[in-house]
Amino acid sequence: MSGGPRTEAKLTETPEFRLAIIAVAVFVLMAALSPDRFLSPQNLTSMAFQFPEFAILALAMTITMMTGGIDLSVVGVANLSAVIAATILTAFAGAGMVGGAAIMWLMIAIVAALTVGAVAGFLNGILVSRFGLPPILATLGSGLVFTGLAVAMTGGSAVMGFPAVVAVIGNSTIFHVPVPLILFALLAFGLHVLLTRTGFGLRVTMYGANPLAALFAAIDVDRILLKVYVIAGMFSSVAGLVIMSRANSAKADYGSSYLLLAVLIAVLGGVNPYGGYGRVIGVVLAVLSMQFLSSGLNMLQVSNFARELIWGGLLLLVMVINVTNWAGLRPRRAPAKAG
Amino acid sequence: MGSPDSAVLVEMTGVTKRYAGVTALDRVDFAVRPGEAVCLAGENGSGKSTLIKILSGVEQPSEGAIRIGGEQMRGLNPRRAASAGVMVIFQDFSLFPNLSVAENIAFASELAEHRRFFNRRAARETARKVLDRIGVDIPLDARLEQLPVAHKQLVAICRALACEARLIIMDEPTTALTEREVRRLLGIIRLLKDEGVAVVFVSHKLAEVLEVSEKVVVLRNGRKVAEGPATEFNASSLTRHMTGREVAEASPGPFNGAGETLLTVEKLDKPGAFRNVSFEMRRGEVLGITGLLGSGRTSLAKALFGLVAPASGRITLDGADVPLGDPVAAAHARIGYVPEDRLTEGLFLTQSILRNVAVGRLDSHERRGFLDMTGLVGEAADWLARLKVKTPSIAAPVTSLSGGNQQRVALARWLSRAPKLLILNGPSVGVDVGSKAEIHDIIRDLGAQGLGVIVISDDLPELLATCHRILVMRGGEMVDEIEGGSITEDDLSHKLAS
Amino acid sequence: MTSLLTRNETLVAVVIVLFCILAAVSDPNFLTVTTLSDLLRASIVLGIFAIGAMLVLISGGIDVSFTAVAVSAMYMTTKFSLAFWPEMPWYLIFTLSVLLGAGLGAINGLFIAGFGLPTLIVTLGTLSVFRGFLLTFVGSDRISALPPDMREFSRMVIARGTTEGGDFYNLPWSLAALVVVVGLTAFILHKTMLGRSIFAIGGSVESARRIGINVRQTQFFVYVYVGALAGLAGILHGSMNRMADPFSLVGLELSVIAAVVLGGARLIGGYGTITGTLLGVALIVLVQNSLIVIGIPSTWQSVTIGALILLGTGLPAYQAKRAAARAG
């Protein structure tokens, strides 16, 4: 369905086009600043290993923002999923296990992690749809619960000692393409198709544009919201598995800066936090810009703290630029309140 | 420059307002005397809201002059207008749901006095005085959100009076009121007039306030087309001036009352909304349901479409039970509902015309979840063409359409689902008079094609022009059933109110 | 009229009482002056934060950046004092921190009141900007050699002693800061037009604009005031812990917001009371410090707080939804 209000605009006026330019510009800038290191195969590969974990969280954020909501529990869900998967792997498999048995336990751990994501998302969805809690509060509270459960299970320390095969998820390549990148590409493509080619996707967009009108148009809004948060939860658990595999351990407080990053990428990618507009391609371009920037800053020996500063600054800058666009897209129901 | 007429409170002379090439107001003269009530009538887009905005200082005129109390007002802004005593009561009243009645009344006047500190007792005192002045008793400490609509309006009037209003402009003052509340409002207006406060009613439905008004001013396409004593106008002459033509309403299409039973409603009950409602309707029938605000008509309409869950009762369509309180199931049973408030309930304003129609047909064009775009787009385009929606592109935002065309988009969404029963709540609210007649044509056509149509409305000419039968609700109950064509507007209006 | 029973304040108070009864039953030492004075001490910083966060919620926004404001103001003030004027008297140290906090709050105000951006996303952004700036450009070392007067302040007590039963207690002067903040905020909220305007904006921005309230100016004030409170809470935290730790405080914002929403402030704006907020703070402090007393391991702390948020806000939301459905 190409009937969005933006189709009337020329390609060059779309936020996605602006983003593509930003992504290329950052890439060129970083390549120019440090050509031999930034363009080296090692750097390019390491970038491809680094970004998928938070990029997948950004996809989870995107789909909830499309409904005018937000999911502040993504990192909590990721860590809880990882901790449960890790507990299964250490308790039943252990570091020394190889072969078929190890693969079987990895599969079980993956299924368990995805189930945790789905259940956590279901809980969020119920709180938002049936209980009518504002998504900010619902996911803030549930996020504390998920993180808290991970802390309670582990006592706050890292769970480690997996079979070697676990590294496949986060640290291996297929035809020279890093597996996390493949996972991200599959999920991004899947979400793109879901949002643009299915009835569900259009319903999500319409709900985000005007929840009340969606109710009057006989859209089953509770079910839509439930599915949205379940999808967000399962995406988060995939991210959790990638993080676990790359770190070769699971811990309740991994990736604590990823929440900000996920919100930043979604907003940078042109998703309207008031709901009703967002495109996966924009989010992908935003992810790439962020990774080029962050990698480049890394080469320039900029500290992690400075990166946090730059990310936050970027978020504010993008919002100021976008604010004029949103003014026209803001649904009537949403006065400029907590968003 | 002659000396200004000292007996005139507010005077606009030759006021013109242009927005980006569009002339919203064209050399309009408008005057109000102290203690006078003026009806400012006009359709949507006639320029009446622009006139209010200029009078209250929200907008500046492109040409022309404004005098308030004989003083020339240049660069009028809302604060100066307010301190000169010009107050606007908007349709939504602009009150604060979380604050007390006393504070809602006193807030604006205390701001105007540039106070820095807030004194609860003084605020209560101010509020008490104003409430006494219009002889109304509303608990001062009640939170505003707990009051009924009519009381909120009185609070808004009190707030204006607390600011020493000399002219109160009321935007669509009667739409949300029951007949009794309208009468109380008119009593208060008379009181204010006696005290020298002037009132301007702005509305496209003015019959109710004609009796307290001295003067009527009609705007059309930004021009003043009629002005005269209120006694010279009645509902039909107002309509003629507003539209510039005689709108001869047709009568309902033929209906022999023979067709099969389509809908049976049995003992539908919802405490606090409606009681023991039972009726039947047949295929091809256009059934009107009317009643004053608060009579339960909108709750009943919503209940038929599952948006409100009745406590007990039964709805059957074509012999099959329709699950209660489930809009998805109702839509599945091929019931359609076009809500009253197009902008918040009916349309997805940020989305395209196309999507606004297509959203009704997603399930039929889904194969394993995937949409058949070509089919969906083709069908939506087809329906937009059949309903004669005028637009250069169906991919344009739905906000680019006029009120009448927007209403057709909402209709197209449901008609494309081939409904058996279509419920139209206020089908011509906020639609200009010309489009209104065309929408009535569509309603009569739908009946002729064998659909059941329920028209919920308090617009009596509309009901008389479209419905074969009219059910009257009062206090949550069905109190009367009238064959269309057997009753005049006046009689119907008495049945509603008595 | 909302009856006393359904109000959040009452519910929270009941939970607090139940908690205390349970705790007293399982540990007789719980109900002593020592515990009370410890809990009071622990409530000071959280309480000042919560009053600020409540103000933002009443105005219809949400702020998650105040912990970063607090830690930045505290650390910068400490650094400044150590570098230029180690003998700086404590009241000037405090004033400087409050001013720095207000300045950082003004940056929030600029984006929110000036550009009209969504408050959650803006403050998520400024949270990392403030913290990133602090750790990159100001410093990332923990400083335990504080300016003498700052250390001295933490030793100044209103009352200290031992009860007849041998329980030790100590009420620091920093408690007076909380009392002053509560008093000042109550005065602003209930006795000034500015305070009533904050409520009005939270109730309806559009109506506020129409009756001539300067919405931007009011919002701007809210964020500056919250920044100032954060600056105060930050320096108190540093002084009471006798260490300026640039990694502290951030992360506490969720508990603070939890306390405020438990106390009855609503995310949609316009509602919130100081009593409710203080009760919410008391409950959160109990959970953070005494969970173990009622037999729940302290690793379950954040589960408990999260569950309290969900229950404390979910039940009223559910009731409101049901009431709306009944009204049709």
Describe this structure in words.
Chain C: GO terms for molecular function: transmembrane transporter activity. Chain C: Its main location: membrane. Chain C: It comes from Histidinibacterium lentulum. With 339 residues, chain A is mainly alpha-helical. Chain A has 15 helices and four strands. In chain A, helix 5 packs parallel to helix 7. The two termini of chain A are 27 Å apart. With 498 residues, chain B is of the alpha/beta class. Chain B has two domains: 10-243, P-loop containing nucleotide triphosphate hydrolases (Rossmann fold); 261-497, Rossmann fold (3-Layer(aba) Sandwich). Chain B has 17 helices and 22 strands. In chain B, the strands form five sheets. Chain B has a six-stranded mixed beta sheet, sandwiched between helices. In chain B, strand 14 (312-317) and strand 15 form a beta hairpin. In chain B, helix 3 packs across helix 4, helix 3 (101-112) packs parallel to helix 5 and helix 4 packs across helix 5 (149-162). The longest helix of chain B has 16 residues, at 179-194. In chain B, 50% of the residues are buried. With 328 residues, chain C is mainly alpha-helical. The radius of gyration of chain C is 20 Å and the shape is globular. A two-stranded antiparallel sheet of chain C has the order 1-2. Chain C has a single domain, classed as ABC transporter involved in vitamin B12 uptake, BtuC. Chain C has helices spanning 8-26, 33-58, 66-84, 90-114, 119-138, 148-155, 174-191, 193-203, 205-210, 215-241, 253-262, 274-290, 301-327, and strands at 157-162, 168-172. The chains are: A mainly alpha (339), B alpha/beta (498), C mainly alpha (328). At the A-C interface, helix 7, helix 13 and helix 15 of A face helix 5, helix 11 and helix 13 of C.
